[in-house]
Structure formats: structure tokens, C-alpha cells
Amino acid sequence: MSQLSTRHLLGIRDLTSEDIALILSTAKQFKEVINRPIKKVPSLRDITIANLFFENSTRTKLSFELAEKRLSADVLNFSASGSSVSKGETLIDTANNILAMKVDMVVMRHPHPGAAEFLSQKIDATIINAGDGTHEHPTQALLDAFSIEERLGSLQGKKVAIVGDIVHSRVALSNVFCLQKSGAEVMLCGPRTLMPKHAESLGVQVSHHLEEALEWCDVANMLRVQQERMDKGYFPSIREYSMQYGLTMEKLKSVNRDLVIMHPGPINRGVEITSEVADSEYSIILHQVENGVAVRMAVLYLLAQKA
Predict the structure, then answer these.
(1) Which domain holds residue 71?
(2) Which pLDDT value is given to residue 306?
């Protein structure tokens, strides 16, 4: 049976094209499983997984937990806000205490870039990065790739525009790596103040005009404006951002072909995307949520073979 080339999932940068293809093909099988009347399989019956979330999360946390339970794993949920971390316990102490409970895999979200990699070097368990600061969010990129492949049949040669707050986005970076390794072309679009200085060095096209990006792409992935990370004024006002970079049905219809519209969530309706677009036939946002469970099942299952 095919196996992943890595023991951990720390970022898309560490995966090969073959790894990505294997995860997506395995996810396809698991999507069939979760659409059956009996949605559970015994694949990870003897595996214990700890979910360590040092940063708030709703969709990712629920998606991982559901994936783990669908695979019959034993699940341990840990939230930093109600734990010893708030009393000053270090990341390694927390992890070692959880490992003392004989945990096989750790799913971790952390506000600091590189936290998952740091932990993987310190403890003997398989680590899955569920988002580390503004660095990477690998399972989101994989579920986005899976959703595009499902809708368009293939990623090869497809043009994907990632629009919005690029500089704060771990989703954008993981998507760039994942899409490029799968044969797609990528354009980053957003205000100059929200575009990383090194953007061109990623091998992507860069645009500061939404209309230009829409004319170019097959798929538009609309990122959330991360107001919680904005400690200085990156643009004059939300209203001005919305007028320039918010996706409306009028802007969508001005392109004379059907585009696929995505959003990693949670959506600021009326800011980066209107309700009319989010709920339209162009949108695959709810498919992304459903596919997240299948993709995370695939990741857990494949990494458990390496544990």
C-alpha cells in the first residue's frame, strides 16, 4: 500500500506531489464512507489522539474531532484557556503530560509559527499542524484542493486566485504550496498593505485589482479579513476594503464564464463576500466544510500507518 513520505503533517511544504495525490485519493474513499447510513469505520480503533488547541477554533476543531470519531479513535480534547497553560505551563510540559497518558497522535493549533515543528522534535508522537500563527494550515489547503478537484475534475492547469488578507493568512501560504505541487497556477490578489513583500518569490502572480484576478482565474478563494490580527491600519476602513475587494454578484456576473467561489470561513458577510454570492450556485463553501472531514480522516488514517 502507498504510504506518506513523512511521519508528521507540519506543513504542505514538507509534502511531495505524490503525498498530496495519495491524501486526496484516500479522502475520496472516506467521503463515500461518511455518506453511508453507518458512518463509522474501525480503522483507528487502538489509536488515541489528543486535540491541543492553544488558539480559538470552531470549524477546524469540530472537523478533526468528527474525523477522529468516524475512524473510531479515542479522543482527548484540550483547550488552553481552561488549562494549566493559563497558569504558565510550557508547551513541552503540556505535551509531555498528555503523552504520559499514552497518546499516539497530537493535533495542534497554536498562535506561534513553527510550534508544531518544535513539538515534533521534542516528543515521540505524530504531530498534525491544525494551524500555527500566520505560517501554515495544511489540512485547509488539502480540503480546498480536494474541493476544486471534485468540482473541476482536476487541478492540473487550473488558475486559482487567492484574494484578500494574504499577509496574515496561513491558509494562503499552504494553498500556494499545495496548488503548485498539484499543477495549478496561483495568483495572489489584495491591497499592497496586505501582500507579503516576498510574494513574487513564491512563483505566483500578484494583482492589486479584484476585477483583474476574476478575469484571469477559474477559482476565486476569498479570504477572511483577520481583524483580530490587525494591530495597525492596513486600509482606511472595512467599507473601503469591501468596495475594492469584496466579491459581489455584479462583479461575478461581469466575468463572462462560470467561476468557482470558495471561502475558508468563517465568513464576514458583506465584507469579503456578499450573502448572495456565498449562497449562490457558484459557491462550494459548504462542500469545503463537508470535505474537511473526509480529508482529515485521510490524513489521520495515513499518518497512523507511520506512527
Answers:
(1) 12-137+289-304
(2) 76
Q: Looking at the structure, do residues 244 and 118 belong to the same domain, yes or no? A: no
Residues acting as catalytic residues: 59-60, 87, 109, 137
Residue 182 predicted with pLDDT over 90: yes
Asked if the structure places residue 5 within a domain, the reply is: no
C-alpha grid cell, residue 39: 458512518
Q: Is 42 domain-assigned?
A: yes
Q: What is the pLDDT of residues 188-223, one digit of tens each?
A: 999 999 999 889 999 999 999 999 999 999 999 999
| Shared-domain flag, residues 65 and 110 | yes
CATH code where residue 82 lies: 3.40.50.1370
Verify that 125 and 156 share a domain, yes or no. Answer: no
Encode pLDDT of 151-174 as tens digits: 999 999 999 999 999 998 999 999
